[in-house]
Specification:
Distance between the termini: 30 Å
Radius of gyration: 19 Å
Structural class: mainly alpha
Shape: globular
Largest sheet: none
Number of helices: 9
Number of strands: 0
Oligomer: single chain
Amino acid sequence: MCIRDSFWSTLISTVLGTLGAMALERFRFRGKLTYDATMYLPIIIPDIVMALSALLFFVLVAVPLSRYTILVAHVAFNVSFVAVVVRGRLAEMDRSLEEAAADLGANTWTTFRRVTLPLLMPAIVSAALLAFTLSLDDFVITFFVSGPGSTTLPVRVYSMIKFGVTPEVNAISTLMLLGSTVLVVVSLWLQRK
């Protein structure tokens, strides 16, 4: 995926994954156990199974393969990673801080915005960085659900390697390594802040 598409995949999956984590951790509802088990499937099953499942789904509903099918497939597997990271933070969070905000007169939205969200922000940022990296780096799922004219960076590098490792491949690899390093440094900086 290009960086713009990875950004959109990250944004959508971060919002959906955070909401899913909050629903699983804070509420009781019918089908919660099934939803919880389904949330872990993209993490557990191999990429090739996820790729074939996504391809079969798009063929079944007659959606032509394009960059949008790549986006949907990436969101489908990134939501699980985001939910697991955010849910881990929610599980260890002290609920008495939210209760204190409610005792001091804050409504549900104000409590979420001023107490819960700041406490969750390190986990949300970490989950977003993980989702961005997974989306930018994914080859197998992208290869299966991409249509004509929607070549992503990993697929392009793969096609270039068929003819030998050229200086272009080395340059792209160096840039991706540099970009990943920058993301790690930003993550560490945000954690210290």
